[in-house]
Amino acid sequence: MTAAMDLLYSDTERELAAALADLLSSRAPAAEVLARTEKPETYDLGLWRTVAADVGVAGLLIPEPLGGAGASYRELAAAAEHFGAAVAPIPYLGSAAVATAALLSAARGAAGATPVSPAAELLRRLAAGTLTAALAVDAAARPGAPFPAGARIAGPGSAGTARLRGTIPAVADALPADVLLVPAEGVPNGLYLVEATAPGLHRTPVVSLDMTRQLCDVSLDDVPARQIAVGAAAERAVDAGLTAGAAVLAAEQIGLAQRCLDMTVAYLKERRQFARIIGSFQALKHRLADVWTMITLARAASRYAAACLAADDPDAPVAVALAKAACCEAAVAAAQECVQLHGGIGFTWEHPAHLYLKRAKASAIAFGTPSAHRGALAGLVNIPAPDA
Q1: Distance CA 197, CA 176 (A)
Q2: 59, 50, 5: which is closest to 27 by C-alpha?
Q3: How many CB atoms lie within 10 A of CB 179?
Q4: Residues 6+ positions from 119 with CB-CB distance below 8 Å
Q5: Which CATH superfamily is domain 11-132 in?
Q6: 252: how many CB neighbours lie within 10 A of its CB?
Q7: How far is 199 from 141, CA to CA, in rounded Å?
């Protein structure tokens, strides 16, 4: 029997969280995030550079020999909670989590130890905060799904290169990316690096429910690409990226849910109706108690998923599926209650409550819906399907 995992926040995680809380309170207040959603460029790239390079979030998962912090998913998940609490408009999820995890998987040698070329240089640049990357898959793709079929290998190039064609819809965090990691169908399948400025590559913004994490369609017309991984290694790399995305997004949803609960409790303590503080009404207390219970249970699932990924535990697929389902439902419930219990002001554009609801709903679809993850659990834990 394996030893029980410690799910409490470590000193390092608390220190990182405190630093991010201070930074985000000054650089990403709700009013500024809301105002940015009305601009053509919704991402705050200045904030991202600070978070990536100065705070070092971009290199948390990257080993020290490649310039990273040599930390783990536990630290990245702790950071993600604060990004969710601020609905921060930065591409940390696509770059520091999804693309980095895919590259780390692709770069492992046969012994599974130290990353090797060709991904090593990319990881060094990611760790330094000078490069932003995104995995070019549909935002709704979930771990364990078939290999993405949006792009295909149109023709071989010189050694280790190819030309790609195809269209990949609704890619998250691709607009501010310097490079894209593109899964491409072929014989065999492969994972390819495409420069954002490559001829034939087009990124078209689409109307997104959550404008703090905008989506775009990616089209490729004979785009030159460099091979990162091929065959089974490419498939493992893509799945590693999707798994990291689901786990880190679950942690983000916890931070969002907690912020919604905190905002609502604070409002109910000061708003008066019928000559009473409305927070004294028992019906409202019960509604918030239900939200608190959901968040507490979901936080345990999120912490366990991050701990499993950090320890390379074989239970990680189960833990991530449970976390993504539980955390998304908690976030949506908390955001809905935040809007409703703020009353009339909660339904206005000027109040940030709608930012949280939109992020919660959009994130519930990303990397697999709660129902999709629950549906996958039967196979993951070897429960026979019901008879037809």
Answers
A1: 12
A2: 50
A3: 22
A4: 103, 104, 106, 107, 228
A5: Acyl-CoA dehydrogenase/oxidase, N-terminal domain (1.10.540.10)
A6: 31
A7: 27
CATH fold label, 236-380: Butyryl-CoA Dehydrogenase, subunit A; domain 3 (1.20.140)
The residue count of the chain comes to: 388
> 171: Cβ–Cβ under 8 A, 6 or more apart, which residues?
134, 136, 137, 138, 139, 203, 215, 216, 217, 218
d(CA 157, CA 43): 35
**Which residue in 353, 334, 331 sits closest to 342, CA to CA?**
353
Q: How deeply is 311 buried, as exposed, middle or buried, from its count of CB atoms within 10 A (0-12, 13-18, 19+)?
A: middle
Helix, strand, coil % over all residues of the chain, rounded to 5: 55, 15, 30
Q: pLDDT of the chain along its 388 residues, tens only?
A: 356 788 999 999 999 999 999 999 999 999 999 999 988 889 999 999 999 999 999 999 999 999 999 999 999 999 999 999 999 999 999 999 999 999 999 988 433 444 446 888 899 999 999 999 999 999 999 999 999 989 999 877 667 889 999 999 999 999 999 999 999 999 899 999 999 999 999 999 998 999 999 999 999 999 999 999 999 999 999 999 999 999 999 999 999 999 999 999 999 998 777 768 877 788 899 999 999 999 999 999 999 999 999 999 999 999 999 999 999 999 999 999 999 999 888 889 899 999 999 999 999 999 999 999 998 988 888 877 555 4
Domain chopping of the chain, boundaries: 11-132, 135-232, 236-380
pTM: predicted TM-score of the whole model, two decimal places: 0.94
Report the CATH number of the 135-232 domain: 2.40.110.10
Distances (CA, A) of 277 to 265, 284, 336: 11, 11, 21
